[in-house]
Amino acid sequence: MKEMADVNRDKYYTAWLEIQDLIGPASHWPKKIRKLFWTKNVKHFDRLLISAFAYNNGLCVEALLDWVNLYGLCRDASGVKEIKSLYEAYEKGIYYNLYAYNLHNKRYENLDGSRHIFRGEKDEGENNRGDGSLWK
Asked: Which of 46, 66, 69, 133 has the smallest C-beta neighbourhood within 10 Å, fewest atoms?
């Protein structure tokens, strides 16, 4: 029985390291997202948060679904299907006004890559794409 636990632990560890290799170290992730990646049976809103963060940081849907299935983030196939459908929508440009922290740019961004402006925050003239161009 102990050998089986060691095998599962090795699978979790390998998959977790693979995700971090693809998008960045978990120590730089928002704490809520890090916690959600280690939560079983996440609900709809948490699946939105996880998928938006993963998509915004370039994690491919296959790698995310491997983790979801390995760790048991979703209770059943409908949750897995939802994550896959969300990625398909994001790829088509349907972003549902979602935003997530982008590890590379060190800021919150809408899923289209533009800087997310929080309510009450002024846009200081930076174009929303953050690429230095003059086009807004």
From this structure: 133
Give the model confidence (pLDDT) of 74-122 as tens digits: 999 999 999 999 999 999 999 999 999 999 999 999 999 999 999 888 7
- Rg for the chain, CA atoms, rounded: 17
Measured distance CA(31)–CA(123) in Å, rounded: 26
pTM of the complete model beyond 0.90: no
Compute CA distances 136 → 72, 94, 108, 113, 125, whole Å.
42, 20, 18, 13, 9
Domain layout of the chain by residue ranges: 2-95
Q: Output the CA–CA distances (angstroms, integers) from residue 38 to 68, 80, 92, 126, in the order listed.
A: 10, 16, 29, 36
Question: Element (H or E) spanning 107, and its range?
Answer: strand 107-110
